[in-house]
């Protein structure tokens, strides 16, 4: 207690000149909703933003996506299917216990199999056959097949402790009981849907963190975030509304940063199962025998009807780039051959007629209204374009919490993918892979897409150690998926933040907002 | 009682209208209401665009300032929204939804609530107590919360909005109807009807109901305005009508996103339309209350 008073006094004395506040508190206005403090519950950007600070990973990504050391200081492929990772010395858990290799073994046993997960981390674990501790400060990971991308995949898995996590479920993490990490901040409060409070971990091994406390307020409405940062209620907000950017740039007391992002926004058609029946009807509202969306010609017709440049210009106001695949230009396995399809209503109509729907059909598209910037407006614009080729489209906008729990019931839905592997593989493996927990495929596949030939090519590509050859193989897989209309990519989102003047934050391509990296 | 157009009835009707017209403000309210109803009815003929037909919308016409030319050739007199909807047309069509929801739900709630309240008062005893406790229970729920819950369960559509509003509003009528009926039940004409052994249905709806109508009609007018506000609120919160068929509340909600960037017209004009509608209904409702409420009439 006395120590803390001393630190407070010191901090206030140092900051008196510029900022007459006692202690250093940071308040963040977050656009997404943190649904859990269990770092393995849901692989979504808001959850990861918190997990990345309470917990550490074996490997870490910089703001630009470079792989750097985390809790592992060295990793080497000792055999074709064996990785050996050397762990950092002297790392302590928030409760004072020492971090050891056993915690890594425990984590990798848990991360892929959290019950009720709406989209988990299994995809990153699919290659792992066994994990063994080699003394206290090294682990040996054996993979089922050659796994050249394993160190990159491990950058997504938060390491939890065995002593706090054994037998704990998601609720125990949410209450804070099991949320014992090694990260830059300790858990302090979690109010579902409202805010997350963190306090600095003075013993963290990384670089010094400026803030004593960090508070994440969940503000899903873009205009409410705008108001909050203008009024000075928060110090930094993410995902500012495109319409307000000019205003932020001209406001004296604010600063604006942005970077092209990894996140692709796409429409996912439901291609198998019965979920489509409630949301797809014939052109006169009659029930249909077969799912039109199961036909690749229909999916390609829908894609060809969309004016992506118009959407990017008019609705995203230049905060996105039209795309026909799911990576920004220059990323590993981006293909220059795949350009965003030019809008062509005539060709689209013909494709529909060829597929047996000369009069089109009726379709309801679902979209989250508080997750991706302007998403409901984008889907309404798409609905205009589809209605023009004869596919009468209704739009249903839902809050993210409802949307994400009902995802698999929709015939067509708008989603975003943060591309956690920084290449084409996370879409190919997790979203488009045939659902098969044994092979670690399709962990986030809620549309029922299945293409065994594609699965083979992807599985093969992921075993190639030579980067150039792996990239070529991945691009081949991307082309197959795009031609099959597996998803309908719309655009790559840019990531932006607005801070009060005097703060600096290196914009992350993975759109996470990390208090530990914000400096003053 | 059945001869509605008897000379005395007709004369007293005319007198009532004359009395009503003595207040110029109330008269102005009435004229406004008639105008709004006409706009809503003839919306398809006077709107430059059908804002609910996605074929007629073009995203490239989005967020045009008042006075800009649209790609289809007509002028956006008061601008367009983010989807390229003509705001004027959207307001005319939005008024339709507001009036359908307002009148529809108030009328349904009126019928259900009045029947419930009258029956309770007439039957009396334990049954009355039970019925009125149900009403109390209903009234103790926060209106918006119950409506949100119902819509979250049923999904979005105009029909469901009406259903939700009826479900949360009928109890108000039930309580008013019972209060009025309790006073009337002590009158001699009810005694007389009972001693004549008229059927219950006859006593309830032919004798009792017409004499309880005054406070209920006043309540009805006020509740129409309330139902319109409630629909706008629900739509503003994103649980009212579908996004492709915006009502006034939903237009205000989507315009609210652009308020800080200078695109004021998307939220402002539907807001004014809503305000004027509710204000006009309340003016008329107030005047009706003055005339029909015996206590207010004495002043």
Automatic annotation (TrEMBL), chain A:
InterPro entries (UniProt xref): Peptide/Ni-bd (IPR030678), SBP_5 (IPR039424), SBP_5_CS (IPR023765), SBP_5_dom (IPR000914)
Keyword Transport included in the entry's annotation: yes
Signal peptide: 1-23
GO terms under cellular component: ATP-binding cassette (ABC) transporter complex; outer membrane-bounded periplasmic space
Any Gene Ontology biological process: peptide transport
CDD domains tied to this protein: PBP2_NikA_DppA_OppA_like_2
Predominant place of localization: periplasm
Domain called Solute-binding protein family: residue spans: 67-434
Subcellular location as annotated: Periplasm
Gene Ontology MF annotations: peptide transmembrane transporter activity
Keyword annotations of the record: Signal, Transport
Highest taxon listed in the record's lineage: Bacteria
Family of this protein: Belongs to the bacterial solute-binding protein 5 family.
The protein's name: Peptide/nickel transport system substrate-binding protein
From TrEMBL, chain B:
Lipid bilayer topology: Multi-pass membrane protein
Keywords, sorted A to Z: Cell membrane, Membrane, Transmembrane, Transmembrane helix, Transport
Gene Ontology CC: one annotated term: plasma membrane
One Pfam family from the record: OppC_N
Transmembrane segments: 21-46, 97-123, 144-168, 264-285
Biological processes per GO annotation: transmembrane transport
Signal peptide positions (record): none
Positions of the ABC transmembrane type-1 domain: 95-285
Compartments, as annotated in UniProt: Cell membrane
Ligase keyword on record: no
Domain of life, per lineage: Bacteria
Family, as annotated: Belongs to the binding-protein-dependent transport system permease family.
Full protein name: Peptide/nickel transport system permease protein
Organism: Phyllobacterium trifolii
Lineage of source species: Bacteria, Pseudomonadati, Pseudomonadota, Alphaproteobacteria, Hyphomicrobiales
